[in-house]
TrEMBL record:
Cross-referenced SMART domains: AAA
PANTHER family: CONSERVED COMPONENT OF ABC TRANSPORTER FOR NATURAL AMINO ACIDS-RELATED (PTHR45772)
Name of the featured protein: ABC transporter ATP-binding protein
Signal peptide: none
Family of the protein in this entry: Belongs to the ABC transporter superfamily.
This protein's UniProt keywords: ATP-binding, Nucleotide-binding, Transport
GO molecular function per UniProt: ATP binding
Species of provenance: Ancylobacter crimeensis
Length: 279
């Protein structure tokens, strides 16, 4: 389990996350949604070690993450993707995945590099990377430079790099951002296929159609605080959630109608699907 225990993040006098507690359980997909500036990405960045927690604790089972450096958080079993792609553009797709399997000790890395008993381990890591690439339909691009791939393919390479270490917790930060409808549907199927009894998944996303069709549990953030938690049906019917997004009840029905007719009630970003904005 991934647990946020009374977590606060303060930037000067501004509280981006304010005393938030919830648990992400394995075997299900937990979405975190909210208007822009609600604190969603701040939660992910704290869990992954990019931001330090101001107060509170973040745990994988009994292991506290908030004081660990990033590489130890990764070794504890947490992987993530990024809202903006962060691949090594000049390296091959295969190499981008292999860096996620660097041994936890420098001694093992030196042995692998110079062939002192580590060659078999290096081959096993490469086999694991190729297995993941095949699963995501990326095997034909294994030796291509990552930066030469189409945007949607690069998004899948990021997902592949995140899952290749067999994490216990997977954080997906807006994985559908910039994808067209077909690419989003493909991504959806890949995420659903990742659901396993021993993997806790967190999905942060603005595409509400994707969220409602893929999530088991939804956490709603607003102004740094936890506003609501429940099933997609619970969240869809929650008046407070509707008011947080558009300032009035009945907002979800209006949003869906506007999306179908592409009217001007809400703004749609090309390729990203439906985006809710706080008024």
């Amino acid at each position: 389990m991934l647990r946020f225990d009374h977590v606060t993040k303060q930037f000067g006098g501004f509280k981006a996350v304010d005393d938030v507690s919830f648990t992400v359980r394995p075997g299900i997909i937990t979405a975190v949604i909210g208007p822009n500036g609600a604190g969603k990405s701040t939660l992910v960045n704290m869990a992954a070690g990019s931001y330090r927690v101001s107060t509170g604790r973040i745990l994988i089972d009994d292991v506290e993450l908030q004081a660990l450096p990033k590489h130890k958080i990764a070794h504890a079993g947490l992987s993530r993707t990024y809202q903006n792609i962060r691949l090594f553009d000049g390296m091959s797709v295969m190499k981008n995945l292999e860096v996620a399997l660097v041994p936890p000790s420098i001694g093992s890395l030196v042995s692998d590099t110079f062939g002192f008993g580590g060659r078999r381990e290096a081959e096993e890591r490469r086999e694991r990377c190729f297995e993941v690439l095949k699963t995501l339909g990326l095997a034909p691009f294994a030796e291509r430079q990552a930066g030469s791939l189409a945007y949607g393919q690069q998004k899948l390479v990021e997902l592949a790099r995140a899952i290749v270490p067999k994490p216990r917790v997977l954080l997906l930060d807006e994985p559908a951002a910039g994808l067209n409808h077909g690419e989003t549907e493909q991504l959806k199927q890949h995420i659903l296929a990742l659901r396993q009894p021993d993997l806790a998944m967190v999905l942060i996303e603005h595409d509400m159609k994707l969220i409602m069709s893929i999530s088991d549990t939804i956490i709603v953030m607003n102004r740094g605080q936890l506003l609501a938690e429940g099933s997609p049906a619970d969240i869809r019917a929650n008046i407070e959630v509707q008011e947080a997004y558009l300032g009035q009840p009945g907002a979800i029905r209006d949003i869906e109608a506007a999306a179908r007719g592409r009217r001007n009630r809400v703004r749609l970003r090309e390729g990203e699907g439906l985006t809710w904005h706080q008024p």
